[in-house]
């Protein structure tokens, strides 16, 4: 009987100890999981357009959820999906998906797919509730053949920033798969184009690029940036094109200032992109066309926004006047070449700090083609 009692007491103590250990483990796991933070953010938009000699259309309409996951003060992950209905089709894309690790106060490393730090438009201005206009400037959208400079990279990046006296500096450098040069004889309409969807690299060479931003004033109202990227873009093993490289450069400017005499905020943004592809001895082209040309492209825009945010009238303080001029020049002798100009005048009404209703009148000109003018409306919402 004593042995049985001793055995029962021993088992009770054992189960009690196991319960305590299980409880401690569960508490530790709960504490660990509480350190993890997940935020779902993003933006959505809906629009309407009516350009000369074209049907009027509601659209494009889109939804871009952004997922931010923080594991610790040093480790986090971010990703953006694009879901958009345009031209009668639904498009899905992974805009970026990047793991980040903070190495020190002045430097962090990121890996995966990330927006190209090539100027400021891609990283900072493209969301619909931040962009003051209903569409991107010429040369800054995702349409094949009209991108002057990279939009996204797959690779590794290093970025950081710091003080320089009363001034500030930010910097980023990256290594990525780089763009591909189109030289397929069965696709002469796109010969000489650079394709920036670099999911798979077409050679062993990797693109190297980066940006340096300088904010000279103590109030950070002015930022000047310089960007660049170099890469081999020809297919490996193709004797005619494997050594062809591409050089891309960008200059950007951002200026925000309060104009006390009219109780308004002035916001100025500008960017210039230049892209040069080494001259090929010959391209596979259609009969009767030149087999080679100077494969150089450039695009730029300058935009101004003026908002009387400090007047006493609740209606007028939410209005914003905006103007943008953009230009894109593509190789004249290429099938996809041309000279394009665009002027946009906009009137925006800010429903809140993250929701804006935009009305644009846009004028498009192309050398040798009819002008295209019309109105575009968009409602953008960030969340």
Strand content: over 45%
**CATH structural fold name:** Porin
CATH level-4 homologous superfamily = Porin
The first-to-last residue Cα distance is 70 Å
Individual helix count? 2
Principal-axes geometry comes out as globular
Order of helices and strands: HEEEEEEHEEEEEEEEEEEEE
Q: Radius of gyration, rounded?
A: 27 Å
Name the helicity range.
Answer: 10-25%
| Overall tally of domains | 1
Q: Structural class of the helix and strand makeup?
A: mainly beta
Strand order of the largest sheet: 1-3-4-5-6-7-8-11-12-13-14-15-16-17-18-19
Query: From the coordinates shown, what is the CATH architecture?
Result: Beta Barrel
| Biggest sheet overview | 16 strands, antiparallel, barrel
Question: Tally of extended strands?
Answer: 19
The CATH top-level class label: Mainly Beta
Mean pLDDT: 88
Segments where pLDDT lies below 50 for 5+ residues?
1-31
Your description of this structure?
It is a single chain. This protein has 383 residues and is mainly beta. The chain has a single domain (37-382), classed as Porin, CATH 2.40.160.10. The strands form 2 sheets. A 16-stranded antiparallel beta barrel has the order 1-3-4-5-6-7-8-11-12-13-14-15-16-17-18-19. Strands 9-10 form a two-stranded antiparallel sheet. The protein has 2 helices and 19 strands. It has helices at residues 2-35, 121-125, and strands at residues 37-51, 57-58, 61-70, 75-86, 89-104, 107-115, 152-164, 167-176, 180-181, 194-195, 207-215, 222-232, 245-259, 264-277, 295-307, 319-330, 338-352, 355-366, 372-382. Helices cover 10% and strands 53% of the residues.
């Amino acid at each position: 009987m004593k042995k049985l009692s001793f055995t029962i007491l021993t088992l009770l103590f054992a189960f009690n100890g196991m319960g305590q250990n299980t409880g401690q483990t569960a508490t530790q796991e709960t504490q660990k999981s509480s350190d993890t933070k997940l935020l779902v953010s993003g933006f959505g938009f809906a629009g309407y357009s009516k350009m000369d000699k074209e049907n009027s259309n509601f659209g494009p309409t889109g939804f871009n959820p952004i997922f931010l996951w923080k594991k610790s003060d040093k480790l986090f992950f971010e990703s953006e999906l694009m879901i958009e209905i345009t031209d009668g089709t639904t498009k899905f894309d992974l805009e970026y998906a990047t793991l980040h690790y903070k190495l020190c106060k002045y430097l962090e490393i990121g890996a995966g797919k990330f927006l190209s730090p090539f100027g400021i438009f891609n990283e900072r201005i493209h969301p619909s509730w931040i962009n003051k206009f209903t569409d991107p400037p010429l040369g800054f959208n995702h349409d094949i053949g009209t991108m002057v400079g990279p939009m996204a990279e797959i690779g590794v990046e290093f970025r950081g920033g710091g003080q320089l006296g009363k001034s500030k500096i930010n910097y980023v450098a990256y290594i990525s798969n780089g763009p591909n040069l189109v030289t397929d004889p069965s696709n002469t309409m796109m010969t000489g184009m650079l394709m920036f969807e670099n999911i798979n690299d077409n050679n062993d060479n990797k693109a190297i690029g980066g940006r340096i931003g300088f904010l000279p004033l103590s109030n950070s109202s002015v930022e000047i940036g310089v960007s660049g990227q170099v890469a081999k873009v020809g297919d490996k093993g193709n004797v005619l094109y494997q050594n062809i490289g591409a050089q891309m450069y960008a200059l950007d400017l951002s200026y925000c200032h309060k104009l006390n005499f009219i109780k308004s905020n002035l916001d100025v943004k500008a960017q210039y992109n230049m892209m040069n592809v080494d001259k090929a001895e010959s391209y596979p082209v259609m009969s009767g066309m030149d087999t080679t040309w100077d494969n150089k492209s450039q695009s730029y825009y300058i935009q101004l926004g003026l908002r009387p945010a400090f007047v006493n009238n609740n209606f007028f303080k939410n209005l914003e006047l905006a103007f943008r001029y953009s230009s894109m020049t593509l190789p004249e002798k290429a099938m996809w070449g041309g000279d394009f100009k665009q002027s946009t005048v906009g009137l925006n009404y800010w429903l809140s700090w993250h929701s804006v209703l935009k009305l644009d009148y846009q004028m498009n000109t192309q050398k040798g083609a009819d002008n295209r003018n019309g109105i575009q409306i968009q409602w953008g919402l960030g969340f």
